[in-house]
Q: What sequence folds into this?
């Protein structure tokens, strides 16, 4: 009985405290269709960097739920939290994450996001607690270890990052993805020989993502020509066109794969400058913001607004970045 009451209280918090839902009863087919449509619009706004509009779209979707709380609503809440944080509403994002966790204490994505927000705020103790809880829930998720380790590295927490990345190497598994992620762990640790061994195993098992990691490794070792060839293999024949690579990056943004999107935009920017240069530079900044790399985003934006002073929206975004 006690457990049922606790669960009910969590549902109430998710619905009432966050003011996520309106009405009550069963969700109609039309409401579900509208909810999915708002989710799509929200993801588009998020990819474009229109964060406040994204928050509204995700909220509009939640308003269609008729007090139903299922996977779709949890997903909408998660992306609402992401959008809130990107819109400089860290406290709102933390509140949304907290409500998600209160409703479902096995939601590792919510712990990871909240930990990342805490880390950006310099609240290292809380960040580590949430990161550790996310890993307890997903102990065999090598990609999660790497994401956390990379975040800690970028925040200057090298010792903490080293512990996480070394723990990643203890993750059991002999699938291609396991070798790929161990290879990336070694890459982040600077253990390039071991990284190459793991990535070669993954590639031999036809893991395409490992090709990109190997290209990054070769690039870090100064083998740029070989790295470029691998990037071409990874991206396909269309990679030679900056416009095509930009399109791939935009697609990855919409999917929420911001690291891969950033890789595509930076690949395209390394090629000969063309008519897509302004859009590519703007998209690169959007990807950096999604990855919470605000220092790099601010540096890139300072250069962008200098070169494109007529872009008033970018100027406003630059003011926002300076407040981070």
A:
């Amino acid at each position: 009985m006690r457990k049922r009451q606790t669960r009910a209280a969590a549902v109430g918090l998710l619905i009432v405290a966050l003011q996520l839902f309106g009405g009550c009863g069963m969700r109609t087919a039309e409401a579900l269709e509208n909810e999915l449509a708002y989710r799509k619009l929200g993801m588009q706004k998020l990819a474009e960097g229109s964060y406040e509009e994204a928050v509204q779209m995700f909220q509009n979707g939640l308003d269609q739920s008729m007090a139903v709380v299922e996977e779709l609503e949890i997903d909408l809440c998660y992306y609402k939290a992401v959008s809130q944080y990107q819109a400089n509403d860290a406290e709102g994002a933390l509140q949304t994450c907290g409500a998600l966790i209160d409703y479902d204490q096995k939601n590792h994505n919510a712990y990871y996001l909240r930990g990342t927000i805490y880390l950006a705020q310099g609240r290292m103790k809380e960040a580590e607690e949430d990161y550790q809880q996310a890993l307890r829930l997903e102990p065999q998720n090598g990609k999660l270890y790497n994401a956390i380790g990379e975040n800690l590295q970028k925040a200057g927490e090298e010792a903490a990052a080293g512990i996480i990345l070394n723990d990643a190497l203890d993750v059991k598994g002999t699938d291609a993805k396991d070798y790929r992620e161990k290879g990336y762990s070694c890459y982040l640790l600077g253990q390039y020989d071991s990284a190459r061994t793991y990535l070669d195993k993954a590639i031999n098992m036809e893991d395409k993502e490992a090709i990109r990691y190997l290209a990054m490794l070769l690039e870090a070792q100064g083998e740029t020509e070989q790295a470029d060839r691998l990037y071409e293999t990874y991206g396909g024949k269309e990679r030679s066109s900056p416009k095509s690579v930009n399109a791939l990056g935009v697609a990855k943004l919409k999917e929420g794969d911001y690291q891969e999107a950033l890789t595509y935009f930076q690949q395209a920017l390394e090629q000969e400058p063309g008519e897509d240069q302004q859009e590519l530079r703007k998209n690169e900044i959007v990807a950096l913001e999604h990855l919470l790399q605000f220092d790099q985003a601010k540096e890139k934006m300072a250069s962008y607004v200098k070169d494109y002073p007529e872009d008033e929206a970018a100027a406003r975004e630059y003011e926002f970045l300076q407040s981070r």
User: Anything to note?
Assistant: Residues 1-25 have pLDDT under 50 and may be disordered.
